[in-house]
Amino acid sequence: MQKKNKFKVVSVNKSRYILPSVLTLIGVCLGISSIKFAMDGNFGFAVLFIIVAAILDGLDGRVARMIKGTSEFGKELDSLTDFVSFGIAPVFVIYFWELNQFGKIGWLLVLLFSVCCVLRLARFNLTKFDDNEEWKMNFFQGIPSPAGGCLILFPIIYELSSFNSLFEIKNVSPFLVVLASILLISKVPTFSFKKIVVQRQMTLFLLLGVGLFFVSIIQFTYETLTICCILYLFLIPVSIFNYRSKLKNSQNQNIEEDQRDIL
Fold first, then answer.
1. Helix or strand (DSSP H, E) at 191
2. Does the pLDDT of residue 1 top 60, yes or no?
3. For residues 30 and 56, is the Cβ–Cβ distance under 8 A?
4. Taking CA atoms, which of 23, 121, 160, 191 is between 20 and 30 Å from 73?
């Protein structure tokens, strides 16, 4: 008697590819939904949806590598999702919040940011490193699209926080969009945090820091996000210095190896 084959939606060998793609699709749904909230004037939820989409964007690739579920399909899906969630949604949110006050110039800024974001994503997909340049994987060329999307939302985040009585920064929104657009397509090295080596004795402190961060996000959401945006801006000069230092060390090592080969 022949056994009946059980119906399977996804084969066992391919099921590990599903979870990263699901996280990616949730991210794009959050990005599109943020536009709807912005149209309704609920900018608090619009910002939070994009922040959650950025967190999921940071997780899907790591989850895929952990469960060995990376694929070319997932890579292309991730790029398309990034463009929607961080190249379109954030700039539309800031447009409905402030840029629409500038008329045609405001819409021009929307197009500028979106074009720069898609150019940045296209360049990222074509970026490859030699075997002797693996250290460069710890750096992005320019800021990543999630960082760019969150950066242009900084004025909204600041206005929603309890810091809003200190300064008036709503009028800097157009300049911040231009700055983020330039940083997206620039070759300024920024930390990617892809390969962070944590010593075993530091694991407990790392977990404590992550726990405190999420507690801060829950209790002081917009204040914590404001501080994170400011810290990221300060990290850009640090990443430039660190990149140049590593590049100089790498060049010195190559020179020493060439001299040894000659001898």
1. strand 189-191
2. no
3. yes
4. 191
CA distances from 72 to 17, 69, 93, 125, 224 (A): 11, 10, 31, 11, 35
Count other Cβ atoms within 10 Å, centred on residue 140. 22
Mean pLDDT over the full length of the chain: 83
What is the rounded distance in angstroms from the CA atom of residue 101 to the CA atom of residue 113? Answer: 17
Between CA 32 and CA 92 the distance in angstroms is 10
Q: Are 63 and 23 in contact (CB under 8 A)?
A: yes
Give 52-93 pLDDT, tens digit per residue.
999 888 877 777 677 776 777 777 788 888 899 999 999 999
Q: Under a CB-based contact definition with an 8 Å cutoff, are residues 91 and 152 in contact?
A: yes
Amino acid at 85: S
**DSSP per position, 209-261:** HHHHHHHHHHHSHHHHHHHHHHHHHHHHHHHHHHHHHHHHHHHHHHHHHHHHH
Domain range list for the chain: 15-252
- What does the alpha-carbon distance between residue 10 and residue 4 come to, in Å, rounded to a whole number? 17
Q: Which fold has domain 15-252?
A: Four Helix Bundle (Hemerythrin (Met), subunit A) (1.20.120)
Which residues are 140's β-sheet partners? 190
Tell me the pLDDT tens digit for each residue of 21-57: 888 889 899 999 999 999 999 999 999 999 999 988 8
- Name the band, by pLDDT with cuts 50, 70 and 90, for residue 107: very high
**Residue 114: strand, helix, or coil:** helix
pLDDT in tens, 216-262: 888 899 999 999 999 999 999 999 998 888 888 877 776 766 666 66
pTM over 0.90: no
- Which residues are bridge partners to 189 per DSSP? 141
